[in-house]
Structure formats: structure tokens, C-alpha cells
Amino acid sequence: MKKLTTSVLAVVLSSSFAMVSAQKVKDTAKTQDIEGVVVTALGIKREKKALGYATQQISGDNISDAGQSNAVSALSGNVAGVQVTATSSIGGSTRITMRGISSITGENRPLIVVDGVPLDNTNINNTDTQRGAGGRDYGDASFDISPDDIESVTVLKGGPAAALYGARAGNGAILYTTKSAKKGRTSVEINTGVSFENAYIKPKLQTQYGGGSSSTLPTATINGQLYNIMDYGTDASWGPKYDPNLMYLPWNAFDPEFASDYLKPVPFIAPKKDVDSFWDTGVNYTNNFSVSQSFNDTNVRLSYTNTQLNGIVPNSKVNKDNMSINLNTKLSERLKAEANINYIVTRGFNRPETGYGDNSVAQKFYQFGQRNLDFSKLKDYKLADGSQRTWNRTAWDDPTPAFSDNPYWTIYENTSLDKRVRTFGSAGITYSFNKHLSATGKVYADTYSLTNSTRVAVGSAAIPGYALTKRNISEYNYEGRLQYDNNFGDFSITGSAGFNYRDNKSERLTGQTNGGLIIPGLYNLSNSLSSAQTSNFASHLAVKSLFYYASLGYKDYLFVETTGRNDWFSNLNDDQFYPSVTGSFVFTKLVNADWLSFGKIRAGWSKIAQSSPDAFIRENYTDVGAVIGSTTVTSPFGGAPMYSNPNTNNDPNIRPELKYTKEIGLELSLFKNRVGLDFTYYDVSSKDLILPVPVDPSTGFLFTRINAGEMTNKGVEVSLNVTPVKSDNFSWSLNANFAKNVNKLVSLYQDLERYIITNAPFRAQLAADVGSAYGAIMGTDFVYDANGNKIIDDNGFYKVSALKNLGSILPDYNLGIRSTWKYKSLTLSALLDIQQGGKYFSTTNMWGHYSGMLEDTALGGNREGGVVLDGVKEDGTPNTTNISAVDWGLSYYGGVDKLNVFDASYIKLRDVTLSYDLPKTIIGDAFQGIRVSAFARNLFAWNLSNKGIDPENTSYGSGNIQGLEGGSLPSTRIYGFNVNFKF
């Protein structure tokens, strides 16, 4: 892998310099293209040459042309220093981090801003879902951003770049700028596309042995006749080897109303319709209509986008409607007004459950089950009276589900609903006192309601029930600022000062039935067998802020900037001040070299909070619900509710976590902008980490929350742009984004060496280990001799070590390489996305071996021969002890956890896009342009440690719990086409 990456970079560099020196074609690119204007914090437009911190921009075309439905996951591989993890679940979570992990219990994601509106990106997946213990992935609120409306994306990578946003942008910020009408233009645009999604990377299952726990089939006398039957109540596949001469009664042979199957023996062979036949081809549609009108001094753009996602799991879909209006107008020579409003309705039906859960089809297919099941028969999942037909019968004469429901019962009867209705936007005015001084007042709003419900039908293996949750979230920001820009001889001054008032409110109402349902099919809390359990929660957080920035320039090549923001939090005792200082030196203003088009050195320092603490983090409240520091109510016992104190005591003097950043950078443009380089080195120290540390239980608590500990991140980011070939009709350009981050937990509290973040569903733990990188997977290892050989015990099994650190979930580096070829009106673009390093724990690998489901448990068709493990005995001699195939498989659970820990490296052909702009000779004067595009995403993947698991699919939320695979859906390959009409 290392050699491959080095080779790719060497080819990029060598070819670029060779081609540049060979080119004779005139290049008309100008320095101002490199020094162009970019959008920075608070939506302030700045000249890039004056910035003393790292930013990176990508075009909205890179997102929309590749058929992306998620504007956040589209950043993967396109921005140096940005790591994106997106699940394959329909409309699922997307986790994005920049420059590593800085907080153990706090927020590590960057702030997302759309047209100046700070967007709530709450992920509602609970802890069980995120640790792989079952649940539905409802995705992030950032899914509401419409990719078709994006003009550009600016990434502010660290504290110096995002300090003006205060505590909420301690992890950087991503600024989305949407399309607006252009002055003097009127246009109508229609964009329509369809894509197809197929299951791609999935566990490989054995096809030589059937279900059960014995090498022979059990028998039963039915109606006086002896039959071979299955061990129906066993959800494992350690049964007999397939034999076409062996006849038996399958699970579906005991229902008289299915006369063609009733008591009819069939051959014991591999099914014609296996697990792969279950997955659908997902069909996704996107249709966008926009109209832009410019008249007099007013510009208006209206846009509507409908997105329909149909997943690979049958009977699952997400529908999203985005409506937006963008308006700006000049009311007078001095007064301008602008507004934008977005209205989004997102509806999800039956988002599939993931992880180790009752309704997780992936868990039933790849962890426990019987390999002889014919899925064409499973489709008849219900009897005429509505009762379930499952393969996992308790016995041949008892159809009650033992452990597992029929997968088709799961997807058609145990369904879910979710709906999010959202409105966000802003309105503001700008008054120019003169050409140097202006004042701006704005209101930013983001509000939405979210309702989600789940059903478990009567007749399921799990307790029937109904659960309902309603949420209302709102944030309003009121902002006013003065802007000043002027030149005094060789000096230039630009600056701004202002205030912001942020008002956050959140409400939640939950209810769930208790003990089952009275009437089958009636999903209402009043239909609860015992009294339904309900709870409600509300929080209110406000932050008052004053801020400024001031930049001083000298002769257009030397710039020094300082920013400051003071935040007063409603939930903290003391206010906080966050400063930053940056500088840049455009040395090409002093150097006259034909080969050097642009060069800048920059440096920056900042102190900023990582995020504002929870609204209830300072005191212990008695509100009912799962709130930090609150009294909680659990399921009733004997009809009486149970109350308990919180496990963790809060500290009234708690402070925000602080993040200190130092960075230096170099920007170069060479050979008339044919080669561009942006290099950054950063050193980040996060202090005053908020941790719950153990205390004496006699205090009434198990933990107390304090400020303690330190974590560091040091790394480099490199963005390289090369145009090896450029002529009138043809060009070839390369863009490479490389990032390497070294994370270290320096300390926790006093002699505390380890903080357990969470547990996997069964064996492993996710921890923060002092002296190591964040996200340590804790588990048992092999025991090795002095020569590094694995030691085998007297019974033929691996000796097991004590609990130890088996590696961090964080990668060593990420690399994205985009290559673009243009020939006249034809453009071909491909993105290679590479990750090296990191670890994940796989519950699927553990249980899939335990139950005899996975391909290698067939042992090449010779289970009968047993297994001799590779290793040495205590005396150093080679192991010769043979253990049974079943005992070997069972050892994956309860033995060496490292057997289930895998490297998270991958090489992916992330996207390929081919587009063609039809010439005027074909489209005539009726259209301004027609572009036809074909695209494919996640086309190929290489270098996987476990060929059946996508390392990106070890995430079930966008929080800090990562790297614990509990039962993932297959990752998908997507291909489609798009047509864009401009009138």
C-alpha cells in the first residue's frame, strides 16, 4: 500500500514537470485566479492572498455531477485533512472530522453553515445503535442540504480559520454557498437524473453445509411415517454436508394451506435462491427545477428538488422535497437587502435496522442462520390468519419463532416511519455609509420538527410494541456588524466588529408500549398491554457574543490579522474569550521569476473552545428523561415506575474544552499556474477535556464530571494541483489531497490511564488510552513466544492474553486523487480515495465463525478433517493438535478478540463521471445548453483486510462511537445518468 501511494505521487509529480517543460501552448491563466476571493467565517468575502490560515474550496459541480444525494459525504477524498465516513444505510449517517479527534466525550464534527445559517446537524441514533447493538440509522440533519443548489463549498480547517464562530466551530467549519441569480441574466434550468444501487461488498458465506448443530439430520415420525427434518430451532449452520440424495422436510413443509409444500421432502442441497436474491436493486431519482430572474436591481432564484431513494432492502425508501428562494435587491444607492428561505420535508419509510438487533436482516443473514434456506420460499412469510411463518421454528410441530423472524416478516411487518419538516434561512440588510464603511444586520433561523415511530408486530420473536418520538429543535441567531475597508498609501486595512445572540431550544416527547399490544395491528400507545411509558424533555441554551477581526496589509504582500470573540453562555458561570492571530507573506511580489506564478507563506495561532457544553451540564436536575445529570425513570416493575439517581454528578464550575492551534503553511503556483501546491503543518492541543471520572459510590454517584486531561493532534495537509497537458482542445489535470494526522491522548486525570467510551455488543471495548491514539479497541490478543510465534495451549487452542490495546480506529493517512480529462465538450473525471491504517472490530466475523455461516468455516469442504491452528506449543515445537471444526468456530467468541479485529485500509474508485455538453449545432437556439452525464460511485474497492466488510460500514452514527461493526448492510455500488437543460 505504501509503495502504491508513493508511486502514484511520483507519477503525478514527474509527469507534471515533464509535461510542463514540454508544453509550448500559451497559458492565459492569471495570478488573480490564484489570489481570488473566497467566503470565510461569518460569510465575509476575503481575498485569499490575505488569509493566514488554511482553507480549501471545491465546486458544486463536483457534487452534483457525480449524482450525490448527500452534500457532506460528497466531500470524501476532495479536501485534504477531511475524513468522511458514510454508511450504506439508505439516507444514513455521515461522519465528518477535520484534523483528527480532539474530544473524548464532546463534539468532534465541524460546524456546517449554509449561506450564513449555522445548521443543526443532530444525529438522533442512540448509543445502542451507534455501538452496533441494533437500531435504525435515521441519518443526520445535514442530509437536508440539496446538492443541486450548491454553488461552492469552502472548508475552514482549523481554529485560526473558524475562530470568529466561537465555541461551536472549534473543529473547523464547512461553508456551503448556494446558487443565486446573476445580474443581467435570466435562466431556467432543469436537472433530472436516475441512479441504480446494488449490493457490492458483503460477507462471503459458505455453500457446502446446511443448518443445525450435528453432522446428521434429526428425524421425526409424522402421521406414522419417519422423516428426516431440520434442527429448526438452531440458528447455526454446523449441519450435514449437502447431499442431493438426502431427503428431508424443510421448515415450510408443515402448513396445510401451502399444499405444494405440505409434508413433501426435498433434497438437502444449497438453495437456488440464496441471500443475494433478497437484496433489491435500489432505484434513486433526483429532479431539480430552478428559475433565475434578474430585473433592475433585484435578483431572484427559485428552486425545487425532489429526491427519491429506494434502498437495497425491500420496502425501504426516503423521499425528500427541497424548496428554496434566494433574493437580493438594491433598495437605494446605499441600502441593500437579501433573504433566502429553504423549506424541506424528508420522509423515511422503513429505514432498515443495522447492528446486532431483533430486526436486523444483516445479523440474520451473516451472523446466525441456516445456509439451506431458499429465499423464494421465505417470501411466503405469512399464513391466511396473519400469523408468521419462520424458518426458525421452535420445533417441527411448534411454529413459534425461536430466535429469528422470517426476514420478509421483518421488512413488511416490523416497519418504521420518520418525517422531518424543516425551515431555515436568513434575512438581512446592509447600509453603506460610504465606500469604506458599511453596517449589516441579519437574522438566521433554523427550525425543524422530527417524528419517528417503530412497530413490532404481534407474532414476532420480540415483544410486540410501538414506540413514538417527537422532537422540535430551533436556533435563531441575531447578528449585527460594521465592516470597514480602506487603503492608506502602502497600507490596507479591513476589519469588522459586531455582536451575535444565539438562542437554542429543544423539546422531545417519547412514548412506548409496555409488555406487548392488546389488539394486533393497532399501533397506538393506548393499545399497550401494560401502562405505556412516556417522558418529555426540554432545554434552552443562549449565547451572547461580541466579536471582531482586523487585518492590516502592507504593499499587498504582507498581511497581519487578529480576531477575537467573547462568548457569554447561559449554562456556564464564566464568559470565555477566544483570540486568534494570523499572518501571510506573498513573497512573489518581491521575486521576479517566470516559473513562479504565486507564492505565499502563512502562519496562525488560535485559542478556541471545541463546543459549548450541554445545557444541563452544570447542575443535577430532577427532570424525567435520559438527560445529563437528571433523575431517570426506567421501565415499570410490577406496575410501579422505577426511579434512579443519575450515575454522573455535574460540576457547577465546569468549563468548555479548550483547543490551542498552531499552524504554518506554504502556497505555490508554478509554471503559469500549471502546478499548484498548498502545504500545511498544524499542532493542536486540546485541554480541559470534560470527563466523568469514578468516585466513591457512597457519594450517591458513580462518576463526577470534571475538566481534566489533554489530547494532541499533529499533522500535515497537502493539496497538489497539476495540469500536465493543456491545449486548445484537450487538457489533463490532476488534483491530489493528502493528510496525515498523529493523535495522542496525553493525560486523563491523576493516575487514571483509561476511559471506556463504550462496549461493543459482546466482546470488545472502545477506549481512550493514555499514551495512545484515541479510539483504542480493547480486547484479548494472542500470546507470543520470544520469536513472535503464537502459542497454542495443551487443548490445541490459542492461548489468550489479558485485555490490551489492539489498535486505534484512526487512520494513518488519507489520500484523494482526482484526474480530469477534457476534450472539447467531453469531460471525464475520476476520484481515487485511499485510506491507510486504522482498525475496526467485527461482530459479524465473530458470530459468523461461531455459527458456521462464513465461507472459510466450510474449510474447503472438509470440516470433518478438523483444524490444526498455526502456532507453537509452550516448548516451542510446532502445534500438531487437531481440534474439531465446530470448536474452532466457537473459539472466535470468548477466545482471542484479535481474530475479529481488522485493518481499516482501503483503496476506492470513489466516483467516475463522464459528461458531454451538446454543441449548438444540435440543440439550436431553444437551449442555452444541454449536458448529459453518466456517473458511477464506489465502483471498485481494493486492499480490504476483510474482503466481506467495507471499513466505512463500521459506523452507525456521526458521534464519537466508531469502529465497532455490529451487523452492517452490504456497501453499495451506484451508477446512473443525469441530464441538465438550461434555457
UniProtKB/TrEMBL annotation:
Gene3D superfamilies named in the record: TonB-dependent receptor, beta-barrel domain (2.40.170.20), TonB-dependent receptor, plug domain (2.170.130.10)
SUPFAM superfamilies: Porins
Domain TonB-dependent receptor plug intervals: 49-173
Keywords from the UniProt entry: Cell outer membrane, Membrane, Signal, Transmembrane, Transmembrane beta strand, Transport
GO cellular component, one term: cell outer membrane
A single GO molecular function term of this UniProt record: siderophore uptake transmembrane transporter activity
Leader peptide range in chain numbering: 1-18
Pfam family, one: Plug
Cellular compartment(s): Cell outer membrane
Biological process terms in GO annotation: siderophore transmembrane transport
PANTHER family documented for this protein: HEMOGLOBIN AND HEMOGLOBIN-HAPTOGLOBIN-BINDING PROTEIN 1-RELATED, TONB-DEPENDENT OUTER MEMBRANE RECEPTOR
Family as reported in the entry's similarity comment: Belongs to the TonB-dependent receptor family.
Protein's UniProt name: TonB-linked outer membrane protein, SusC/RagA family
Native source organism of the sequence: Epilithonimonas hungarica
